[in-house]
Design brief:
This protein folds into 2 domains: 5-55, DNA polymerase, domain 1 (Orthogonal Bundle), CATH 1.10.150; 63-351, Aldolase class I (TIM Barrel, Alpha-Beta Barrel), CATH 3.20.20.70. Helix content is 35%, strand content 20%. The protein contains 11 helices and 12 strands. The strands form 2 sheets. Strands 1-2-3-4-7-8-9-10-11-12 form a 10-stranded mixed sheet, with helices on one face. It has a two-stranded antiparallel sheet with strand order 5-6. Strand 8, helix 6 and strand 9 form a beta-alpha-beta unit. Helix 1 (10-19) packs across helix 2, helix 4 crosses helix 5 (172-183) and helix 6 packs parallel to helix 8. Bound molecules: S-adenosyl-L-homocysteine (SAH). S-adenosyl-L-homocysteine (SAH) binds next to strand 8 and strand 10.
Length: 352
C-alpha cells in the first residue's frame, strides 16, 4: 500500500509540492481538492502530469464507499474499503441541527467486549489519521448538496462521534492527529465541542487526553456497576477498575471544564434491574456527567438479549428519580445493522 496524502498537514503538503518543483499555489489547489473528498486524479485544476507524478508515491484515493445502506429513518450506513482491501463501516445520522457521522478508528478491535460485533475477529490494524479523516471527506462529498457554510467551510457533516469500530484510545497517536486535523482551521474545521470520543476506559490514555487541551466530549462505556459484573462483558475491566475510571473522568472535567458521559447498554438479565439502578445512582450522583442508555443491538454471534422497551424506560425513570441526568438513546438504523461492526461481520461472512 502506498502512502496517502490525507495524512499530511497543509504545511507538509506544501513542502512536498515545492519539492516536486511546483508552485506554492498548486499545494492549495491539491489540498482543497482533497478536503472536498476528491481522488487526486479527480482534481481538475491540476495537470495530468503533476497528478501522475504524485500517484507514483501516493494512493489516488485512501478509500472508496463500497456500499450504502439506507434505513427507513434516514440513517445511512456505509461500508468503506481501504486501499489494501480492508473494510470498515460508518453511520450517518441526520438531525435537525446537522449531520452526525460515526467513524471507525481501527479495522477490527482487540477489546473483546461480549456484545460487540467489531471485535469478533480481533484487531486487523490501526487506521491512520488520514484514513479516519477520509471517512468524513467521502461522506461530505456524497452529501455536497446538503452542506451548510460557504467555500472551504462548506460541509454536510457537522458532528463526529468516534464510536464506530475500534477503540480510539488504543490507537492514540493517530486518533490525536486526526482530531487535530479535523478541527484545524485550514481543514474541515469541525468544532471539538461537536466531537465525541467513546472509550472502553483505558485510564492512562484518558489522562493523556485530558492534557491535550482539546475540548471534546469524553464518553466512557460503562455497562456495569461493579468491576466483577463489568469484567463479564468487558475484558478491559480486568485492567482498569471503575473507581480509577471515575477518577480519570473527574480529572478530565477539572482540566477541560467539560462534563463527561457514560454509555450504558441495557442487557436483559445482566445490568438493568432495580438494584443496578440504585448502584449506578450511588456511583454517579452529584458528578458532572450524563448517562446515555443504549438498547442492545442484538448481534447474532452473541447470545445476549436486548431489554424490553418497558424495562428500558423503567430503568431510565429510576435513574432520573435518583437525581442522575440520563437519556435513553433513540434507536436508529437498527433495520440496517446499526451496531458497531455488524455490517462488516455479515459482509465477511457472506464472502467466506
Ligand atoms: N471502543 C469504544 C468505541 C466503540 S463502541 C468504546 O468502547 O466506547 C461504541 C459504543 O457502542 C460503546 O458504548 C459500545 O459499548 C456500544 N456497542 C457496541 N456494540 C453494541 C451493540 N451490539 N449494541 C449496543 N451498543 C453497542
Amino acid at each position: 500500500m502506498k502512502k496517502i496524502l490525507q495524512d499530511l498537514s497543509f504545511a507538509e503538503l506544501e513542502t512536498y509540492v515545492l519539492g516536486l518543483g511546483e508552485k506554492k499555489f498548486r499545494a492549495k489547489q491539491l489540498y482543497e481538492g482533497l478536503m472536498q473528498g476528491k481522488a487526486i486524479t479527480e482534481i481538475t485544476s491540476l495537470s495530468k502530469e503533476f497528478k501522475a507524478r504524485i500517484c507514483e508515491e501516493y494512493e489516488d484515493a485512501p478509500l472508496k464507499i463500497k456500499e450504502i445502506f439506507y434505513a427507513s429513518d434516514g440513517t445511512e450506513k456505509y461500508l468503506f474499503e481501504y486501499a489494501d482491501g480492508h473494510l470498515v463501516e460508518g453511520v450517518l445520522m441526520k438531525y435537525k441541527y446537522g449531520y452526525t457521522q460515526c467513524v471507525s478508528t481501527q479495522i477490527g478491535c482487540r477489546m473483546g467486549c461480549a456484545f460487540c460485533a467489531s471485535t469478533l475477529n480481533g484487531l486487523i490494524r490501526n487506521l491512520s489519521a488520514g484514513e479516519i479523516l477520509a471517512q468524513i471527506l467521502a461522506v461530505n462529498a456524497l452529501h455536497k448538496a446538503d452542506a451548510a457554510g460557504k467555500g472551504a467551510e462548506a460541509r454536510a457533516v457537522t458532528n463526529v462521534v468516534l464510536m464506530g469500530s475500534g477503540e480510539p484510545l488504543d490507537n492514540y497517536d493517530e486518533v490525536l492527529k486526526f482530531l487535530r486535523s479535523v478541527t484545524s482551521e485550514t481543514g474541515l474545521h469541525i468544532s471539538a465541542r461537536n466531537i465525541s470520543l467513546s472509550t472502553c476506559g483505558i485510564v492512562p490514555k484518558m489522562y493523556a487526553l485530558a492534557e491535550e487541551g482539546i475540548p471534546l466530549n469524553l464518553t466512557v462505556s460503562l455497562h456495569a456497576t461493579t468491576d466483577e459484573d463489568r469484567a463479564r462483558v468487558m475484558p478491559v475491566a480486568k485492567a482498569y477498575k471503575i473507581a480509577e475510571i471515575l477518577k480519570a473522568c473527574e480529572y478530565y472535567f477539572k482540566k477541560t471544564g467539560r462534563r463527561y458521559y457514560f454509555e450504558y447498554t441495557l442487557i436483559a438479565g445482566e445490568n438493568c434491574d432495580e438494584a443496578h439502578a440504585r448502584a449506578l445512582i450511588s456511583l454517579l450522583k452529584g458528578k458532572p456527567c450524563h448517562v446515555n442508555l443504549i438498547r442492545l443491538n442484538e448481534v447474532k454471534e452473541r447470545d445476549l438479549k436486548a431489554t424490553a422497551d418497558k424495562e428500558a424506560y423503567r430503568f431510565l425513570g429510576l435513574l432520573e428519580k435518583g437525581g442522575l441526568s440520563a437519556t435513553l438513546r433513540r434507536q436508529i438504523g437498527s433495520d440496517i445493522g446499526g451496531a458497531c461492526g455488524q455490517l462488516r461481520a455479515s459482509y465477511l461472512e457472506e464472502k467466506a
